[in-house]
């Protein structure tokens, strides 16, 4: 589901532009061209201009985009400075790593509570965050008006967790389980299947090996002897 009026790939590129604009501004550069921004985001100048057409302001012709001004425009458009509270369900290794990840602060995300069904984890702390039982999730989310949920549970628990989140009023779910939960049309789910991403990397490495047979230690020694 995407009712935002802007393609999701464009949103991701806007974040890349934002980071490059902020860095350039901090270095004292007043303007960046569409070519500079395209290089930073791995795209084309034409795509940069198309992405910026979603913003309420445009760059100056033949001069480029004012770094400080456009960083602020993107910052406001993406809501980066607005605090966004989230809850996370699944206090395993991945859940704890996400809960402690400091980079979320740069995009205004703050995980406020962890949930789990494991009695050995309930009541413990991850950093400053308390681990609560999943049964408490709907009422707490509703009371705190939280709209973002993160799922790092096993696949067999993910649908029940998503149902509990929706019952509490969650409208955006970041799902790291291998199950794609079913939710109402007004709830957005972003599925992050780490296993499938690993398969892509694995296949790429395998294809490299098929193109060029691995070199043995003897081959390396032979080359060294020939060079000496």
Automatic annotation (TrEMBL):
It comes from the Bacteria. SUPFAM superfamilies: NAD(P)-binding Rossmann-fold domains (SSF51735), Winged helix' DNA-binding domain (SSF46785). Residues 16-55 bind DNA. InterPro entries: CoA-bd, NAD(P)-bd_dom_sf, Rex_DNA-bd_C_dom, Tscrpt_rep_Rex, WH-like_DNA-bd_sf, WH_DNA-bd_sf. One of its GO terms (cellular component) is cytoplasm. It holds the Pfam family CoA_binding. GO terms for biological process: negative regulation of DNA-templated transcription; response to redox state. Keywords: Cytoplasm, DNA-binding, NAD, Repressor, Transcription, Transcription regulation. The keyword Lipid biosynthesis does not apply. Its main location: cytoplasm. One of its GO terms (molecular function) is DNA binding. The keyword NAD applies. It is found in: Cytoplasm. Gene3D superfamilies: NAD(P)-binding Rossmann-like Domain (3.40.50.720), Winged helix-like DNA-binding domain superfamily/Winged helix DNA-binding domain (1.10.10.10). Residues 80-180 form the CoA-binding domain. NAD(+) binds at residues 90-95. Modulates transcription in response to changes in cellular NADH/NAD(+) redox state. Belongs to the transcriptional regulatory Rex family. Homodimer. This is Redox-sensing transcriptional repressor Rex.
